[in-house]
Amino acid sequence: MTRKVSEERLNNKVVCKVCFAICKNYISLAKHIQHQHNLSSEAYYRKFLISSFEDVCLNPNCFNKTRFRGLSKGYAKTCSHNCYGVMHTGKNNTFYAKNHKKEDLEKGVATRRKNDSYNHTKETKDKIGIAAKRIFHYWGVSGTTGKHHSKETKELIRQKALGRENPNKDKTYEEIYGEAKAKKIRENIQKRAILRFSIPENNPNWKGGISFEPYTSFFNEQLKDKIRVRDNFICQLCGVPELECNDRLSIHHKDYNKKNNKETNLISLCRSCHAKTSFNRKYWQKRFEEKIYKVIK
């Protein structure tokens, strides 16, 4: 494949600049420098053949490194089709990087208009849906992953949805998907909730760990019994007496401050009602203020 050359042939492009061996063509030269000199084509080109700033994009607003095309062609003039279009037409669009004929443009417009009014058959839609599910299952991405609608698109979607009734409104998962799929959906929701709320700071009811603060010594059994007697041993929310509960009535702090043990800040609740007060605290605080005021009065 290679042989020694005379001085007249040294300026030939297919002459190896390392050992001055001649090759048939650039493909042979690439194989030669790889096996004989352990050099890649790009490394050889950069060492012996590259000119100044040849590997830089010609777009004055870019200056990115261009792609190496081979020993015979060297580096590309631009880094992308957009830069190619800018250099030739001054427009930042891949469409302008080509010289289109008038007939081709008219044909393309007609084809696009035809496709806009085309509707896939049900079988084709099912195939597209199955393919999308497979892609999402194996790669974890969909066609809209990482994409967001613009404000104009969101407004158009909102306007189109106005007055439209949701066919699944007031329906359970079982009615929509069936029992088997509904069970899987509920399990997935439960798993995500457990993972999310396993970190206390992620819980929407997290108040900085105030529930772990100890009660004061004034909040003892004598004070609790005094509040139960004042409330006639009845839950002040549902009205169930303590005898019908499986446990003694809990004493709840109206303002959720464990250090405020005034009688006007305490109220008797059953265990079930006491659990409800963990949510929507402003509502319960206002309601218990009126309740305690009536009891004391």
What is the structure about, briefly put?
The protein has 297 residues and is mainly alpha-helical. It has eleven helices and six strands. The protein is 43% helix and 6% strand.
Describe how the helices and strands are arranged:
Layout: E1 3-4, E2 21-22, H1 26-36, H2 41-48, E3 68-70, E4 74-75, H3 81-89, H4 102-116, H5 122-139, H6 151-161, H7 173-177, H8 179-197, H9 221-230, E5 250-253, E6 266-269, H10 271-276, H11 281-296
Antiparallel strand pairs: 1-2, 3-4, 5-6
Structural class: mainly alpha
Helix content: 40-55%
In spatial order, strands of the major sheet run: 1-2
Q: Treating each run of at least 4 consecutive H or I residues as one helix, how many helices? A: 11
Radius of gyration, whole Å: 39 Å
Could you list the spans in which at least 5 consecutive residues all have pLDDT below 50? 1-12, 93-97
Largest sheet: 2 strands, antiparallel
Instruction: List SSEs in N-to-C order.
Output: EEHHEEHHHHHHHEEHH
Tell me the β content: 5-15%
**Straight-line distance between termini:** 111 Å
Descriptive report:
By secondary structure, this protein is mainly alpha-helical. The chain has four domains: about 5-50, no CATH class; about 55-110, no CATH class; about 170-210; about 220-295, no CATH class. The chain has eleven helices and six strands. The chain has helices spanning about 25-35, 40-50, 80-90, 100-115, 120-140, 150-160, 175, 180-195, 220-230, 270-275, 280-295; strands at about 5, 20, 70, 75, 250-255, 265-270. The radius of gyration is 39 Å and the shape is elongated.
